[in-house]
Amino acid sequence: MAEIVECVPNFSEGRRKEVVDEIAKSIASVSGVRVLDAEMDPDHNRSVITFIGDRAGVAEAAFQGARTAVARIDMNGHRGAHPRVGALDVLPFVPILGVTMDDCVALARSVGKRIADELQVPVYLYEAAATRPDRRALPNLRRGEYEGLKVAIEKDPDRKPDFGPSRLHPTAGACIVGARPVLIAWNVNLGTKDVAIAKRIAKAIRESDGGLPAVRAKGFELADRGLVQVSMNMTDYQRTSLVQVFEAIRSLAAKEGVEIIESEIIGLVPLDAILAGATQYFKLARFHREQILETRLWD
Amino acid sequence: MAEIVECVPNFSEGRRKEVVDEIAKSIASVSGVRVLDAEMDPDHNRSVITFIGDRAGVAEAAFQGARTAVARIDMNGHRGAHPRVGALDVLPFVPILGVTMDDCVALARSVGKRIADELQVPVYLYEAAATRPDRRALPNLRRGEYEGLKVAIEKDPDRKPDFGPSRLHPTAGACIVGARPVLIAWNVNLGTKDVAIAKRIAKAIRESDGGLPAVRAKGFELADRGLVQVSMNMTDYQRTSLVQVFEAIRSLAAKEGVEIIESEIIGLVPLDAILAGATQYFKLARFHREQILETRLWD
Question: Shortest CB distance from B265 goes to which of A242, A287, A297?
């Protein structure tokens, strides 16, 4: 049985390409691990590397990435638009195939402990790996950012890390390690130039405004195409499926007299999330993923 | 890059389970080859074994299956409803992933030659591997069946095999080897008890009555469910897609005032064939199969 864990570490370096390359190289050097993507954002001064592998491979690669980041990134003097607390700022493990969320929680805790023990970086556990309800959400853990946490970690017992010393690493700060469902970035484009419609629909469907669970959404104008866009992050497609969201948008748009023109998956998506559309379209009964010939390669 | 060839040999034995098991075992004994299915039909006195692997593995497994069938099946005295010419009656190679139809033609020809050379069984090449246009279709090659071919192969120069001797193997007869697209068995159920509607729609869409290329279709009654069924074999989904057929059935049914209730894939289906439904449903633009996380296991 093949297994895939996805790992999507965020590093506080988005300007020195040679440093990001070096981190990616230390991750890719682990046998069986495949780096799928590396994105640098100079404004945020931050980069995101996406890689996959089995549990053992991903654990080792995540640690090697952490080690390189700790050696090469100095948070003193780090400036950027995105909130952050350390060189390896966030390290989420994501179950994709043949592993459970609990497996990824175990992975987060063991890699987190190793980062604390071997690199002397304090580690906080978040989302599914959190040890306290108030530590599930990232913003709670990032309060005060690097500069604020430097003081708070030593003075405030409430900010004691889950692993490692109660002081920041002198250059690498702290690290937030966790487990979460796969994130799907998905845009739905509507056949109108009226951005207010996209904004209204986004507001109606997003969780933060009382809409659908695990959906983040914003409305944008695509001026050059004469369309508007509902741009989404689906943070748990098993709670709210792409089909549910698509039907919700279709119905809200229809009430505005507008049609869905197209949708676009940005980056990666798990098979089941996309397959649900085929099941819906073909009205498939009794269909199992194992009927897809290519899945037999994963047995 | 992973590669998958599917192989679906038909053997002239559908009653002695121990013989079919022995054939399946000789196929499965080849490293890297996976037997997905083995079906015995006592009325046809015939069995179909489905297996996958890379080119080298499938070539070896196909030959081992042929060797066992030639050793264990005697066509003298074989009776059954299905037309046949030999112990290993038909041996098609099917490209699934990372291999082309031309690769499968090459495979069919090299395995066919080996069966002729080492087992002294005359071999005819069919479909994409055929050496003459009139040998593409199976029924042409099966003319007269085992009993008729016994005489014709020796007397009629037109029936000379592509490989091996111009006489049948004394017990195993002849063998038809080829390459073809993957076959998808698919049923679409309609919300009516009137089987005439399913029969009319089947007639309208099937190739043999001037309908869609590479579609075979029949209409049936599902009396216990109060529905009727358009039962199809899609013989080349890249020529006529499942979406095209689904839309055709939907539109023909609508004209009869009937709706599609559900559809069902019988057995195996390639990812791309089913993914087309998701692309259609979500109106996906710029979507590539490589965006599906699990496909990264095949790189």
Answer: A287
Binning chain B into helix, strand and coil, the percentages to the nearest 5 are 40, 25, 35
Question: Is residue B78 among the annotated active site residues?
Answer: no
Q: Cβ–Cβ of A283/B263 closer than 8 Å? A: yes
Q: With an 8 Å Cβ cutoff, is B253 touching chain A?
A: no
Is residue B233 within 8 Å of residue B183, measured between CB atoms?
yes
User: Does B260 lie in the same domain as B127?
Assistant: no
pLDDT at residue A257 tops 80: yes
Question: Which residues of chain A are within 8 Å of residue B264 when distances are taken between CB atoms?
Answer: 284-287
Q: Do B271 and A280 touch (CB under 8 A)?
A: no
User: What is the domain-level CATH number for residue A128?
Assistant: 3.30.990.10
Write down the ipTM of this complex.
0.89
Q: Provide the 10 A C-beta neighbour count for residue A125.
A: 24
Parent domain of A114: 4-179
Kindly tell me the burial class for residue A197, based on how many C-beta atoms sit within 10 Å of its own C-beta (0-12, 13-18, 19 or more): buried
Hey, which residues 54-83 in chain A have their CB within 8 Å of chain B? none
Q: Same domain, yes or no, for B172 and B197? A: no
- Mean per-residue pLDDT of chain A: 95
Confidence of residue A14 (pLDDT cuts 50, 70, 90): very high
